[in-house]
């Protein structure tokens, strides 16, 4: 199917919140990982989100070029073409963008999409993330307000982060401490600055102990009840319908989370969960197995010629994509999106 229209993407997110499920947002950095994500969503019968980080966008432009905008545009163009052959709805997203990279990443991409929309075309991406976790909340929300206006004009959904995600991703590292837990006051301030949906569509990554990176279950102290308290605080502050979930929430740093923690987070309004570390491993593990099992074919050992069928990148690439696709299916099952494509 074609890449989701802005209207279809909003429908996907609304349906997820109403139906208490969420979409895996799979980070990719190549055509191979993109194809693996597409296959995984198709195998699961799930709509989904595929995203690039600043580092992923640089890599996609060529590892010696490191041009985030070029890599993002190339990724979006390729994805738009190959996604047509898969029977699910896919939205494209750009991941964590800190303040010092806004002018070299999100703002230029927003301008490109705004120009496309003026010509009657679809935006390049369906959503962009502004990561203001490293700046004071007031500044974070001021920049978010400016970006929200630009996103509305370009028919794009904004994602913001209120709170801090621990661990390391793309060179950004944060300590693991109490700052990892957003407060009800943070949620109310966000709603006062950006509304709760009535001014323009946005998603909110409230933090509840989230940590980027590789952690065994139990080492990350998640408190999904933080999300419930945030939703309830906004409902009470603005007199909204009791039990409603005003925020479309995002779950970052999910590696090592328990099934119960994921389930609770989705129940409290999470509609998007980023998946990166686990799918990176799922892609690379079959490659390692291929190299070990075909050692004398991959390498020209003792002056021999090796086995072209073993070192052809497609040989290990297919195994890698299959491994990652299977992990995407697993993520869809955990988040309850499997079998629920809107078609």
UniProtKB/TrEMBL annotation:
The keyword Ligase does not apply. GO terms for cellular component: cytosol. PROSITE patterns: ALDOLASE_CLASS_II_1, ALDOLASE_CLASS_II_2. Its EC number is 4.1.2.13. Coiled coil: none annotated. Its cofactor is Zn(2+). The active site is at 95 (proton donor). The keyword Manganese does not apply. It holds the Pfam family F_bP_aldolase. Zn(2+) 2 binds at residues 131, 161. It is an enzyme of class 4 (lyase). Dihydroxyacetone phosphate binds at residues 213, 253-255, 274-277. Belongs to the class II fructose-bisphosphate aldolase family. This is Fructose-bisphosphate aldolase. It comes from Nocardioides marinus.
